[in-house]
Specification:
InterPro entries: Phage_Mu_GpJ. Helix content is 54%, strand content 0%. By secondary structure, it is mainly alpha-helical. The protein has a domain at 7-108.
Length: 155
């Protein structure tokens, strides 16, 4: 199972908040176990939201820019879960969580996109698709026209 963010990612992005929010009630030290569970739960929630549009195979083959996007959203969602776990939630943390979920739902609804390593890097389309055709575009093929000006002119 892929976890979209790590404790190191959270510590790099929110060093002071993470230390304050995740301090154990008894020892005062950061509780990395609870943080790990929050990251895992957030990654599960992200996959559940994106399952409306992406298959598990597509989510497993996301490229680095897409993983960077999910890392940001996962961090915001996990920080909210950590804050709830320690009963230290704030409006700002809740707002970041809500925005992350809202953006993920927009991606799942087709108002944004994540790209995979399997999509053709040289062209706009995916593997096996003609240039200029995106992976979510419909291609219609039909037989040649039966009634053309040339054929009708011979009658």
């Amino acid at each position: 199972m892929t976890v979209y963010a790590t404790i190191a990612d959270l510590a790099a992005r929110y060093p002071a908040e993470l230390t304050l929010l995740a301090a154990n009630e008894d020892t005062g030290l950061r509780d990395d176990v609870r943080i790990g569970h929050a990251l895992s739960d957030s990654s599960i929630e992200i996959r559940a939201i994106l399952a409306a549009r992406y298959s598990p195979a597509e989510l497993a083959s996301l490229d680095e820019p897409s993983l960077d996007v999910l890392r940001v959203y996962c961090g915001d969602m996990a920080l909210y879960r950590v804050a709830l776990s320690f009963s230290r939630s704030t409006d700002a943390i809740k707002e970041r969580y809500d925005q992350a979920v809202k953006r993920l739902e927009a991606i799942a609804a087709g108002k944004g996109a994540l790209t995979t390593t399997g999509s053709g890097q040289g062209s706009a389309g995916g593997e096996g698709l003609p240039d200029g055709v995106g992976q979510n575009e419909v291609i219609v093929t039909a037989p040649d026209r039966v009634f053309t000006r040339e054929r009708l002119g011979r009658i």
